[in-house]
Structure formats: C-alpha cells, structure tokens
C-alpha cells in the first residue's frame, strides 16, 4: 500500500491560483484570514431549497404524544404551519417543529411561497415496520469459547418465521423472543447450544441461519466465525486492531491500557469480553482467536537504538510480541513489557545518543520488565508508540514538532485530518434525510477546507479519506502513524433521535483519550463553537478508536448536530465550513505555541 497515493494532497486549483496571484498571507489573529473563496471553492453541499417534508415523508401513525416534523424550505419565502409562522429555520431553509399530538388524526399544512404540503399524523398505534430477511446474525466477528460452555445464537427475522441455526455440524431451532400482533415486524430469535469437546482450538466456521417465511426458505451466514477451545487447552488471542482498549473489569468501568496490533496473550476467562493473563479485559471484537499455541515468553537478546527524523527508536530483539503497559509524564516515559526478560543486561548505555533521555532504569519483576526512560530536556518528548516485528518490540519516542516564524509557522509540522465515515457508511442523516448532504459529505468538505487552511500556514497535511470511500479505522490510524503525524484531527457530525425539540439541542464537543490530547481537544471545542456561534459542550475523555494514538495528540471533533436545523445549515454552508477551518487552524497554532 502506497500511503502517498492514498493520502495525496487535494490543493484546489482555486487555491493555487489565489496564491500565485499574490493573495495576502493570512493573519494569525483569529478571524484575520481573507481567502474565503480559496478555502471553500470545493464546497457544494446539497440542501433542498424548496418546501419538502422529510420526517415524516408520508402519513404516519405513532403512539407518541409529540412529534418532531422536519423538512426544507425556500429560505427567502415565509414558512407557515397551519397558518402560524415557523421560527428557528436554518439559513438555508431547513426546519424542525415539535408538535403536540391529540388522539386520532392530526393534520398539519405547511406553506412556503407558492408551495404547500399536508401531512397527517395519527396518534394511536405505531405504524409497523416489516422485514422479509434475516438481519444482525451473531457473531458479527470471530469469537471463541471453551468446550462445555454455551454458544449463544441470535438473529433478527420477521415475526412468525421459523428459524434454525447450524454451527459445527449441529442444527438448533431458534425461538422468537416475544409474540407480536403483526406478522413480519422485526423480532429477535435466539437459542443456546453446548459446545462439544475438541483438542486445542478449532475454528467451527460461521453460523448458518436458515429461515422459512411465507412459504420461502432462505439462509445467511454470520460475518464472524465461532472458535472452540478444548477444556484442557489455552485460548490464545492476537490484537487485530491498530489499537484497542483494555479495561479494569468486565463491566468496562475503567481503562487500564491500550493494546497494540500484533500483541499476543492467552485468555483466562471468557465472558462478554476476554480476561487476559496479563490482567484486564479486552473486547472480543478487538482480537483474533488463534488456532495454534503461541509463545508469549519474550527473551531479549539485543537492544538497538536509532535516531530518525521525527524521533528515536529502541528495538528490543526478542522472541514474542508481548503485551505492554506504558505512560509518560513530565519526568519519564514508563514502559512495562510483560513476560519479558533480558533487557536488564543492556541497561548501561541505553540512553547514549538520545536527545530525549539521559538514562534508562531497568528492573525485572516476576518475569516482567519495567523500563523508566528519564527525560533530559534537550528535546521535548511529544509521544510514543509501541509496535511489533516478528518477536521484536519496537519503541518509538517522538520529538515535539518545531514551529517556524513568519506567515507559515507550521512549516515542518505534519497533521493528519480524517473525514469521518464514507462510502457505504453515510454516518448521521441530517434534516433533509438522504435527499441532502449526509455526515460523510459534510466531513469530507470540511476536511478539505481544514487541509487548505493548515497548508496556508505551512503544514504538511495528510487526508485519511480523499473521496467517498470506505476507509476502516485501522487504515486511518495506520496512515497517521506511517506519516509520523504531529497531530490527528478526525471530523464528525453529532446527532440524536428526533424524540425532543432538536432546535434546542446542539453544540460542539471534542473527544480525546490520551492526556497529551486534552489541550488540543479543549482548544478546538472552544474555537469551533466560538467561530460558528454554537454552544461549547467541551472536551470529553472517551476511547473512540481513532483517539487511541499515544504518539501524537489525537481528537475526534463533533462539529455540531445534523439533527438541529440551524446547525445543519451552518455545517453545509461555505461560511460555516470556512469558519470551522479557521477555528481549527487557529487552534493548532495556539496548541503549538504560535
């Protein structure tokens, strides 16, 4: 995979022309930019500019006492509902109205210019939604259990269907969870079967669900396979995500560490997650069960050191991809390698040649190795990463980026900008439904604008998605690491179910995980909210996958709510996207001390 090709820069011809024509360098003061057309020349997000009802699109029945009606309108014409003016419209005509429902039929007539639309909402029973196929077949990812334990089988199918599941040559009849008054509505079918005895770990393959409904029979296979480990054997797993959270308990009440792709361990208990021998619980979807027995005892036979551009590398040449625990503070970088010995033999001189550390203290504790890299201060430690290469454990310690002066202070700084969702994953659906710009469209248009703004300040910008493509989380994170990015910014749009008055729910919030990311999260949340006139909902710690980078501040920005008409129209407008790009550009400057 060639990262340069995947993440090529999208500098628009308009921006290039503007720069060549001598457009003044942007001011570094907030709001001092004067290159609106260059930054937003690519923006052309569709929003209906005529009267249309999107929720509901047609007459509907509901048991709710209130309903949030949404649609679009001509913003230059008056909009009324049953003769009363509709307030709170977005600048591009999107609107939402929370209406109280009386029992029986409620009629709402909307008028906008020369157009009118009528909708009937009946307060009674909900309009049933029916299906004709099997959905949500379990498991959706490869998972394992032990011989003698139960295997849970489950899918969604039309109410009234007959469903069986076949796994490992055994067929089981599934039972519908609850009777429904209407045939064909989605219903949960489930059953349990006891796993047989095997030697070692065996892949039983996916579960085949077979349904008979209205005289027709059809089958689907689960996306994931079932693995079975013999009662006298160990179940080994390998972390399959670039990064994965490990939790204190099976209830995920607290984080312990971030595991990295390629690490191996064995499981001591299977519940809703796996309990690892090195401590902590890891989600089943984050790891791959292994059929073979794997060595987790790591004997290090040599330690090598290398300086390279953006940081320093310590390679511990060993025999296993062991789990680790690490953190950094103002005085040291702490790294604990589980099931690892031999490094203590190389303690003397490990910091020789380092611009980050003046000493490394190594101790062995019950077969594990703890290293404390003591910081010297000649170069500032920005972050770290741990990876594996066939038994070698590689520690990457990243230098803090250096900023420049003048009109391009970000020269030499690399920033990864990620447009959330894409391809078959549209993300959140906004006020116009699928008839207007969806989250994936808004995030890509915003990412390109942010790229232009940051490049105007001298930064090298890597886009993790350059078109309407499916790019999985692992690839987005790997692109960021491969380019040794100094910052990672993932752009998203927020949403909520239309059960309340969404005119009153909005704002910007930014998520982070690693402590090094908190300042960037707080700054961007305040900036985007302030520049666009939205509420600042603040920085919030969580473990979204793309925030798990420890080598550089990494954040997920929820720019606003696509379910709020005013914010939807702002996020799809050229001015709203321009202000977002300015907010992020100024935020990056502030975080880097410019």
Automatic annotation (TrEMBL):
It comes from the Bacteria. Transmembrane segments: none annotated. CDD domains: MurNAc-LAA. Residues 1-29 form the signal peptide. Residues 477-589 form the MurNAc-LAA domain. The keyword Signal applies. Pfam families: Amidase_3 (PF01520). SMART domains: Ami_3. Keywords: Hydrolase, Signal. This is N-acetylmuramoyl-L-alanine amidase. It comes from Anaerotruncus massiliensis.
């Amino acid at each position: 995979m060639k990262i340069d090709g995947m993440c090529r820069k999208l500098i628009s011809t308009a921006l290039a022309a503007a720069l060549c024509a001598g457009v003044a360098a942007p001011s570094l003061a907030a709001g001092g930019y004067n290159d609106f057309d260059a930054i937003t020349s690519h923006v052309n997000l569709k929003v209906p500019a005529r009267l249309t009802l999107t929720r509901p699109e047609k007459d509907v029945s509901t048991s709710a006492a209130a309903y949030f009606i949404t649609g679009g309108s001509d913003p230059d014409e008056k909009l009324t509902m049953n003769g009363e003016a509709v307030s709170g419209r977005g600048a591009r005509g999107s609107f939402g109205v929370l209406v109280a429902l009386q029992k029986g039929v409620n009629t709402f007539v909307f008028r906008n210019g020369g157009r009118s639309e009528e909708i009937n909402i009946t307060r009674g029973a909900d309009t049933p939604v029916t299906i004709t196929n099997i959905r949500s077949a379990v498991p959706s990812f490869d998972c394992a259990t032990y011989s003698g334990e139960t295997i849970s089988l489950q899918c969604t199918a039309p109410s009234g269907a007959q469903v069986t599941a076949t796994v490992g040559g055994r067929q089981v009849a599934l039972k519908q969870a609850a009777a429904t008054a209407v045939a064909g509505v989605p219903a949960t079918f489930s059953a349990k079967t006891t796993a047989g005895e095997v030697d070692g770990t065996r892949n039983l393959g996916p579960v085949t669900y077979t349904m008979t409904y209205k005289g027709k029979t059809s089958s689907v296979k689960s996306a994931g396979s079932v693995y079975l480990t013999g009662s006298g054997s160990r179940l080994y797993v390998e972390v399959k995500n670039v990064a994965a959270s490990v939790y204190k308990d099976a209830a995920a009440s607290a984080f312990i560490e971030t595991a990295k792709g390629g690490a191996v361990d064995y499981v001591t208990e299977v519940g809703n997650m796996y309990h690892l021998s090195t401590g902590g619980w890891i989600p089943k979807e984050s790891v791959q069960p292994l059929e073979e027995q794997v060595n987790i005892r790591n004997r290090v036979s040599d330690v090598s050191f290398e300086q390279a551009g953006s940081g320093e590398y310590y390679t511990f040449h060993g025999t296993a991809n062991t789990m680790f625990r690490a953190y950094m503070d103002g005085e040291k970088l702490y790294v604990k390698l589980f099931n690892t010995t031999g490094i203590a033999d190389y303690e003397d001189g490990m910091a020789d040649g380092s611009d980050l550390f003046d000493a490394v203290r190594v101790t062995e504790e019950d077969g594990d190795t703890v290293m404390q890299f003591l910081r010297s201060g000649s170069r500032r430690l920005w972050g770290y990463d741990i990876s594996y290469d066939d038994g070698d454990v590689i520690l990457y310690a990243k230098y803090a980026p250096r900023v420049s002066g003048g009109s391009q202070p970000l020269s030499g700084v690399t920033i990864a900008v990620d447009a959330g969702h894409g391809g078959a994953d549209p993300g959140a659906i906004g006020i116009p439904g699928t008839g207007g710009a969806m989250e994936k469209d808004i995030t890509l248009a915003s990412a390109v604008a942010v790229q232009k703004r940051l490049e105007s300040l001298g930064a090298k910008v890597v886009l993790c998605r350059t078109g309407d493509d499916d790019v999985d989380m692992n690839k987005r994170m790997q692109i960021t690491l491969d380019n040794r990015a100094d910052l990672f910014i993932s752009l998203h749009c927020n949403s909520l179910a239309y059960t309340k008055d969404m005119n009153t729910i909005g704002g910007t919030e930014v998520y982070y995980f690693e402590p090094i990311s908190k300042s960037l999260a707080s700054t961007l949340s305040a900036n985007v909210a302030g520049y666009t006139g939205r509420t600042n909902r603040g920085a919030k710690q969580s473990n979204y996958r793309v925030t798990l980078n420890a080598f550089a501040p990494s954040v997920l920005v929820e720019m606003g709510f696509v379910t709020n008409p005013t914010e939807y129209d702002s996020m799809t407008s050229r001015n709203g996207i321009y202000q977002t790009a300015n907010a992020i550009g100024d935020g990056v400057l502030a975080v880097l001390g410019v």
